[in-house]
Amino acid sequence: MDATEHGTLKRSGGISPNARKLSVAKVAMQHKITGYVSRSFQMQLVLTYVIDGKMMMDTLLISDRNHPDMSPDSEFPPTVFVIDDDMGFAESAKYLIESIHKPVVVFPSADEYLAQFDPRQTGCIVSDVRMPGMSGLELQEILRERNCLLPIIIVSAFGDVPIAVRAMKAGAIHVLKKPFDDNDFLELIQKGLSEDARRREEFRSQQVVLDRYDRLTDREREVFEEVIEGLSSKEIGQRLSVSFKTIEAHRAKIMKKMEADSIPQLLRMWFTIQQCRVTKTILPPQP
Predict the structure, then answer these.
(1) How many Å apart are CA 47 and CA 14, to the nearest integer?
(2) Which one, 93, 106, 139, 184, has the greatest CB density within 10 A?
(3) CA separation for the pair 26, 13 (Å, rounded)
(4) Which domains does the chain have, with CATH numbers?
(5) If pLDDT is split at 50, 70 and 90, which confidence band does 73 have?
(6) What is the pTM of this model?
(7) Over the stretch 104-116, which tens digit does the pLDDT of each residue have?
């Protein structure tokens, strides 16, 4: 129920009247809660308002985990970003993509795209490989360093195998040679958008596990690692020089904080944590 449609909405504590309708991300931006912060940063924003004479209260949890906004109601709809200095091609690609009702933004250079880049953007990128200034491959490298999740489709007027190999190794989902069939191109766009959605869902699942892992104390993390190695509580106690009962208490807290019902489930969570460490899923602070 939208508060503005069912009574008088009064603001309290300096929160704007329409704050209740905004996503957490929008509220955070509106109140200057911006930038990149540590993984442990969390804030509660309490919204107080009056509807039909009754005082209501909402508590929003703002947690900037230094990664793109993954909320389903993100203010960044899936968009295709076309980057090509050949504006004739760029406009043709824009026309094609709009024919399947997908938002498109065109940039004449990689530098101009990077100037507006936001890690919360969703969708996919179509980039030419050879452009004045920064090339498509150089753009790929920079986006990878920034842990950009957007799938990239590389297009080129040249059938250069080494460039295609390098692009694929850098994470491109496809290298397409100009000129190409319109239907093939649109299929790749759909593939890119679907891949972006899949990556973000996987990212959300990983973040749930990482959030739970954050709850553990240093000692609990030590015990966690020993449990994953398959050691018994007695063996762990001997290795860490603590009592059997203490280890049992730690194990119980680990299972509760990780919300695991069994050791196999805990093991799967551990693999997720290790995968995030290897692939740098936890994004570093941006400059």
Answers:
(1) 9
(2) 139
(3) 18
(4) 3-62 (no CATH), 79-197 (3.40.50.2300), 215-279 (1.10.10.10)
(5) very low
(6) 0.60
(7) 999 999 999 999 9
